[in-house]
Every structure is written in C-alpha cells, then in structure tokens.
From TrEMBL:
<protein>
    <recommendedName>
        <fullName>AB hydrolase-1 domain-containing protein</fullName>
    </recommendedName>
</protein>
<feature type="compositionally biased region" description="Acidic residues">
    <location>
        <begin position="76"/>
        <end position="85"/>
    </location>
</feature>
<dbReference type="GO" id="GO:0009507">
    <property type="term" value="C:chloroplast"/>
</dbReference>
<dbReference type="InterPro" id="IPR000073">
    <property type="entry name" value="AB_hydrolase_1"/>
</dbReference>
<dbReference type="InterPro" id="IPR050228">
    <property type="entry name" value="Carboxylesterase_BioH"/>
</dbReference>
<dbReference type="InterPro" id="IPR000639">
    <property type="entry name" value="Epox_hydrolase-like"/>
</dbReference>
<dbReference type="InterPro" id="IPR029058">
    <property type="entry name" value="AB_hydrolase_fold"/>
</dbReference>
<dbReference type="Pfam" id="PF12697">
    <property type="entry name" value="Abhydrolase_6"/>
</dbReference>
<feature type="domain" description="AB hydrolase-1">
    <location>
        <begin position="155"/>
        <end position="402"/>
    </location>
</feature>
<feature type="region of interest" description="Disordered">
    <location>
        <begin position="60"/>
        <end position="88"/>
    </location>
</feature>
<dbReference type="GO" id="GO:0003824">
    <property type="term" value="F:catalytic activity"/>
</dbReference>
Length: 407
C-alpha cells in the first residue's frame, strides 16, 4: 500500500490532524448550516493558511484523515467491507476543506481517481428549475420557477463572473413562493450555457452579451417591464449597462455586491487573466470559481455546492477560455465610469435596492455608500450582516426579505 507520509508504517495508517478547536471558543451562528471556515486562497486569490475563521459550531474537536480509510474512522479492512470508494481526487488540487473529504492515495488511481469518474459523480448536479432554450444562434441554460401569470410580476436574476445562475436557486424558490415568476439564465460562456469558440459568431464583447440577452428575453416571452436583480463582476456589470440602455424595460433594479464606482477594486483573478500565458494557465484551474467565491466570503462552500461551481471548468476547457476572452475584452474603468454616471441622480429615476453583504472581501460597504450618495432619492441600501460577496449564496433568506420588502 502506498504510504502518504514518512511516518506511515505497514501496521498502522498515517494520520493527518487538522487544528483542534479550543473548548472555550465562542461561536456565532450565521447560517442554518454549521461549519468551520478556513481562509481559502492561492496566488490569484490570496494565501492558503491553516487559520480557523470562527463561524459556527464545528462537527468535531479534531478532524482526522487516515491514509487507508475514507474518513479515518476505520481500518482498511473495514472500508473494504463497505464497498465505498475512499479516494477524493479534489484533495490533491486544493487545500480547501470544502473540496477535501479525504487526503489519501488510491490503490488503483485509474479506477478510483480519473476525471471521468469525477464527472460521472457530479454531472447531474446543479440543474434545479433549469432547462435548455435555443435563442438566436445560442443554446442557453435557463432556470425558471413560478407561474407565468404570477400576481406580483417577473424577476430576472443575472449572475457575475466566474460563477453561474446556480447561486440564485434558493432565492428564486422563495421569491416564487412569494408570488413572483423567476428566471435566471447562465450567461453565454458560463455555467451550463453554450460555450462558443471566440471568433466564430461570438467574441465575448459587451455589445454581444447585450444582444444575446435581448434575444433571450424575446424567446422567453418577457415583453412587459420586469424586476432585474444583478450581482457580480464582468458579466454582472454588463447586466447593469444593459439596464442603462433599456431603462424602460426595468421596473425596479436590485443590485447585490457589484462594482459600482470608479474606486471599485478589481480582484486579482481578472488582472491575472489579462496577462499573456498566465491568463491561459489561470483560466484552466478546475476550482477557479469555487475559490473565487470562497475568497470573497466569510464561509467555505459545502462539497455538494462546490461540485456544481467547478463542474463546467472540470468537464471542458471552453468555460475557462470564455472567461479569459471576456476578461481580456472588458475595459473595467470605462464600464465603471458609465455605471457610476448612468445611475446618478441626473440620469436615473427608477428605484434601486443595494442588498449588500458587508463581509465582502472584494467590495467593501463603502462602495455601496459612495454609490448611494450619487443618487440618494432613488437608492436604498440594505446591509446584510454575515454575508460576503455573494449574499444570495451566503444568506439567501436575508436577500429574500430585502427583495420582498423592496419589490
């Protein structure tokens, strides 16, 4: 049996001990899911450390992983009797505990740890309320829930880069229960939507995203003014510039943690994507989206959620190259200047809600406050304590409460 560390012996498995939890520590309950969060990061997103961020009550005082067992609780012989694979391949590509069920070497890597097996285990995840829609030249993946004759109207949710509409699943379900008809598409090149090759009908420029979105609205038969919810960087910003160009189609606008002013910082990920060779390498990181989400939040993702965010990047190189092209085509400062000026008091009159996760590591609350000052009559700021860059993922119940009150 291969040994995981020099101290491993043939008679006893090698144990890896994660930091123990102090008995006197006080925990703050922030979500319905109990978990201890580690600081996730690497060269693109910060630095990995073993430091615990106290979030909620941990599952155990010690976390122990055995080289010969799935969770360190039994011997190699006991694990064989259970007939369950013990190898988690993601333990080798990230130090993030949400991607690490075990760190161990498989007896037969070709059977237990190949990419095909990984994809088979997760390929059906993350498609709640979703289906494929052909619109114009492209095939979109669109989540829809609620009735077309919903008494309170239609909401369209737009995600940012490098994520997908999956982040809105809980908010959509609760807003549908509240009487809204909800749609959330994956932008072209993201999530489960089509991944066109750059130069063959789609170059990942802002105006092309706008046109494709216009076509999709027609295909979905969204002809009346609707409520628009936008979050995130890059394609999230394109959702805001689309709104500026189509204000007559928007009843009210809700913005969740998006760059809104020229002082908004640009995360290192998007800077690295613009660098030759470095960008090509970075965009093919299978855990790119997962790490970006966690580095902007106070929490780590549970494994079942992380699976969905990494699936597009794991199954094909196309999503990474789509992100690469979009990042290299965007002029962040120009887009932010237009957003800042376009939503100022002299240009925009429709109501705007800023539902802002105040633990965002990318965009501090001061960005939202600065944006509000430019149009205090139209903008309402709702600070969401305990949520980070993606409040719809961190604390959907609070987002829903803010949206229902605003809409």
């Amino acid at each position: 049996m291969p040994r995981c560390c020099p101290c491993a012996t043939s008679s006893s498995p090698a144990l890896f001990l994660l930091p123990s939890v102090p008995a006197s520590s006080t925990y703050k309950t922030t979500t319905s899911s109990s978990r201890v969060a580690f600081s996730p990061c690497d060269g693109a997103f910060g630095c990995v450390s073993g430091r615990l961020r106290w979030g909620t009550r941990p599952r155990a005082r010690h976390a122990t992983v055995a080289a010969s067992g799935k969770d360190g609780s039994g011997t190699a012989e006991e694990e064989k009797e259970e007939d369950e694979p013990g190898f988690n391949p993601f333990g080798f590509v990230t130090d993030n505990p949400s991607s690490r069920g075990a760190i161990q070497l498989p007896a037969v890597p070709a059977e237990d740890g190949n990419v095909g097996q990984m994809l088979y285990r997760i390929e059906d995840k993350g498609r709640e309320y979703g289906s494929y829609v052909r619109s114009g030249d492209f095939r979109w993946f669109v989540r829809e829930i609620g009735s077309s004759d919903a008494r309170r109207g239609t909401i369209v949710f737009l995600h940012g880069a490098p994520t997908q509409s999956f982040s809105y699943r809980m908010v959509m379900a609760q807003m549908a229960d509240a009487g809204y008809h909800c749609f959330a598409p994956d932008w072209i090149g993201f999530g489960f939507s089509e991944m066109p090759q750059p130069g063959y009908g789609f170059d990942f420029k802002e105006e092309e995203f706008h046109k494709a979105f216009d076509d999709l609205l027609g295909t979905l038969n969204i002809t009346e003014p609707f409520f628009l919810v936008v979050q995130g960087f890059l394609v999230g910003s394109y959702g805001l510039t689309w709104a500026l160009n189509n204000s007559s189609k928007v009843l009210k606008l809700a913005i969740l943690n998006s760059p809104l002013t020229v002082s908004s910082p640009v995360p290192g990920l998007f800077q690295q994507l613009k660098w030759p060779l470095v960008g090509e390498f970075t965009c093919q990181n299978a855990v790119l989206a997962e790490r970006f989400i966690e580095a902007g939040s106070a929490y780590v993702l549970k494994l079942e959620k992380a699976d969905v965010y990494r699936l597009p990047y794991l199954s094909s190189g196309a999503p990474g190259f789509a992100l690469l092209e979009a990042a290299r085509k965007v002029n962040f400062q120009d887009v932010l200047r237009r957003i800042s000026a376009g939503f100022s008091s002299s240009s925009w009159e429709k109501p705007i809600l800023l539902a802002w996760g105040i633990s965002d590591k990318y965009l501090p609350l001061s960005i939202a406050e600065e944006f509000k000052k430019a149009n205090p009559n139209a903008v309402k700021l709702e600070a969401i304590e305990g949520a980070g860059h993606m409040p719809q993922e961190d604390w959907p119940e609070k987002v829903v409460k803010a949206l229902v009150s605003f809409l």
